[in-house]
Amino acid sequence: MSDGRLPVRRRWIGWTVGVVLTLLVLAIGWVAVRGIGAVSDLQQVAKGAAQLKSSIAEGDLDGAKPIAESIAQNAGSAHELTSDPIWHAFGVIPWIGPNFRAVSEVAQVADDVSADALSPLLDVAADFDLAGLGFTGGAIDLAPFAQIEEPLGAASRALTDAQLQVQRIDADATLPPLADAVRELRSSVTQAATVVGSLHGASVLLPTMLGGSEPRNYVLAMQNNAELRSSGGIVGSIALLHAEGGKITLQKQASTRDFPPLDTALPLSDSTIALFEDRPGRYLQNITSIPDFADAGATLAARWTGRFGGEIDGVIAVDAVVAEHLMAATGDLKFGPFTATADTVVDILLSEVYAAIPDPAVQDDVFAQAASGLFGAALSGGDPGALIGALAESAAEGRIRIWSAHQDEESVLAASALGGTIPDDTADATHVGVLLNDTTGGKMDYYTRASIVTAIGTCDGTATTQVRVTWTNTAPADAATSLPKYVTADGFYGVPAGSVRTLVAVYGPEGATPSHIDRDGAEDGVQTALLGTRSVVQHDVLLAPGESTTITVDFQGEGAGERLTQVQTTPMIEAPKTSREELRCGS
User: Fold this and answer.
1) How far apart are CA 306 and CA 233, in angstroms?
2) By CB atoms within 10 Å of each CB, which of 172, 241, 327, 379 scores lowest?
3) Average pLDDT over residues 362-383
4) What b/e sequence results for 388-399 when a residue is b if at least 16 CB atoms lie within 10 Å of its CB, and e otherwise?
5) Widest CA span of the chain, in angstroms?
């Protein structure tokens, strides 16, 4: 007979389930309380960051210090609240786990930045005008740079590490509000890492590059994005700058007409010849097709010395959009028949000038006036902080590239965005890229647009990195008759007026090889080459007005399939839209 009690085994199961449920309820309550506290702390961090930025911009360092201390306290608290074993256990639960992991990782990034970057930056800012870099009266005071290099280096390293951390957070796997916060943090940390990295680079390079120990001479190449080349655009005009004791002066201006094609090309790498034949070695305008600016800069210097003689210490290449950023600080500019504002200067330089001035020689004179006028305004007027900010923004967009003939300086430049080199892949990140080179022979890239999508995963059981490029000609349907012949090239190079012909080169991670290539879902003839150990696939694309095409390349092998994939691309008038999507394997 039964005594009315459950069997021992069933009682044990019931007791166990009860304990588990109790512990689960307690754990949920625990993470809920800690989560609310962590979110509150992170909100205070975000609020404090905005206040700190304003205080530093206004030079209120006394007010900045307590704000920084509050940020550090809140960031440390959020990190502590999201670092315990129970919180980490919730991080492995399907669906909700990525949200817990993201909050924890955001808190850690905030804590690391406040502890390792804010303090040295405030120490530097107490004694040095970071916003203006000591720029007054058309010159930069080089004396303080030796003292600020070390703390700026520490801050730069901390922000670079934080940038990698935040890029690894899978925002797409989190709930929308958290995903937006992660993307905002990613953007802010990337911007901070770029600016502080540039400041650190400046502290290392400026004392010697601006003639602190001996006079220096630099070639300044101005690129026209309306006719694309790998580094930004065709070389439209060129000048010689002299730097001495922190002061820069414009010594000489020249046009491409001063550099006729060479009968024998200058030395080029095998990869450059494979992609562009010997044209970059013969034509000044095509030198910026060379994918690596370390090679392009040396070639530009050789062309200048071959034409005018002298010794060149380095080369600086900028594109037309840099003028827009600078004029936001210097104000309106008059050149030729135009009065340009920051909002109109790109349209004038890359489009309107060709309709208003048909003669290419006169166009060159107008471009020279614009360059000298902007250079003079930048050195003699405008807020120093705003000028430095404009240059930093241009550098972050890849619109300024610098090569030095001095190996110690070049090694620093090559490791930065300013060097214009293709970055080495690391354990944390792989790099892919898209190089765009016009062969229309006109100025039709004023009307071109690009979008780039990357995806990672596995195809046929093999780690895969996919790059998808959509290339569009937005010129009006009547471009053949409504646009100037100088813009369309009027069929001179075999391209129908109004159409755009472009070499679209896609390169993958180091060591990976193309496993699938298509254009609009079909096979298409391609060129292949190697950039170091990177495979390059280049399509020759012809688009009529309004047409668009999509190129897809799957890379497999060493380096492929890494989650963090960074995209390098040719700077365009409108920056290409980049995004990440779920991998769709090619057939």
Assistant:
1) 22
2) 172
3) 85
4) bbbbbbbbbbbb
5) 113
